[in-house]
Amino acid sequence: MFRFPKFTYQRFPRFGRPVSFHIIAVGTSTTLVCLASLAAGRRTIRCDDESTERDEEAREAFPGAFHKPKWRSQQWLSADSILRGPTVYSKDHEKLGISRCDGISVASNGESEDHVTIFFGGIEEGQDTRSYFGLFDGHNGSATSDFLGENLIQFLQKTLARFPHQCDYSVNLDMYAEASDIESDPVNDMIKQVFKEVDDAITDVSEVLSSSSRMNAVRTLRYAYSGSCALVSVFEPDTRLLRVAVTGDSRAVLGRKIKNKKTADGRDMYEVHVLSQDQNAYNEDEEARMNAEHPGEKIMDNGRVMGWGISRSFGNGAYKWPLDVQKKLHEKYLGDRPRPNVKTPPYFTAEPVITTTTVQQGDFLIMASDGLWDILTNEEVVGLVGVWLENNHIAVWPGDKRRDYGKTVFEDERVYDRDGLPVEMKPDHTSMYRYWKADKRFVNKDPSVAWHLVRNALGGADSDLCEALLSLTQPRSRRFRYVPVPV
């Protein structure tokens, strides 16, 4: 199982403990700056010290007013240095049905709250050949997404490995052509059960309440006070079924080449298949579900769900625990005070909505957290992958045994606008490029499709804008740049 590194970019190192007491000390809630004299023989610094020869020398060396701060290129990482992430190849693309997976993480906060987990199926006789892909978009800290990244896919794989593949693909192709219409599916039911079992374990307070230890409570419940979305895809090569389970507002989109249809300049055209629906305040089904569960309460307000951007999640115990439990945690275990708008919990659920799709040869899947979809439309993302494939098909299709994708990129100096992408466009309702006061203009220069997507989400052909957005540090960065983890 492969997991992406948590941090891709960090502008400055963070201090985890006091360093060099004569320079700086870090307190529990305040940064304490301690001034000390480093000049030999001078034990005190006074504002009314008389001038000395050394002061005169200093003034000659630094004449005039204090110099304005200036940035130096060596202080900053370039966009090309930041836009980096791994590419992982399957052991046997013919048996597993998957060629490669590209990934990248660009944090918007100082600490990334997101995780990606990849588990390729086994190729030996009797092994589970399913492949698993998990994207976990954390919020209110990284504890929950950390836990899911380390445990959910592993638990799901071990559970489904005991399940045989539903049937032989070659015999039952017609039945699975309409698989997404099947309401009850034993594998989907098992995925839902695994999601709920993991969330129940995260939010369980029985061990905490059976002890008087506040230390134990704080350490145990950090996974429950934090929260995370989850987007999990499971691919069965025998049946060519792709199952996508979503809890939260991350999104999976599949791109498919259209047979016998070309652009005006002879390039392949692609169609867009959205495999998940964002579970947020704009989802009418979610609004109806929550209003039915909590009649008379104001659940959705100003594009938020109980103040949050999602209607389903792991963790977020403050919106799941009974009020008497929350009061006890607050009074005895350093727990948070119950929210005024929490009246009839639970509000959030970790139960996923699952879609099932029959995959065709040449299909590609994009899984990304909401940051990417806030900037680029489904059609733009599929179209961008399409132009990338035109230049990198040798690297994607495993006929090239070297798998040195960095050396198989063809030069592409074109600049693309939306209408130049090989996909039928729909209206663009995204707002970030307008917020940046820039036009959407795209480039195709990266050897990884994940790097390619993020570059074009953060300025594209406007390299100065891209560098500027990636130079922003917290807290301002979150207002301008929010692209967590595309895969």
From TrEMBL:
- Keyword Membrane listed: yes
Name a GO molecular-function annotation. [pyruvate dehydrogenase (acetyl-transferring)]-phosphatase activity
PROSITE patterns, alphabetized: PPM_2 (PS51746)
Q: Which UniProt keywords apply?
A: Membrane, Transmembrane, Transmembrane helix
Listed under GO cellular component are: mitochondrion
Q: Which residues form the PPM-type phosphatase domain?
A: 98-487
Among Pfam families, the record links this protein to: PP2C (PF00481)
Q: Which domain of life is it from?
A: Eukaryota
Segments traversing the membrane: 21-41
Protein name, as recorded: PPM-type phosphatase domain-containing protein
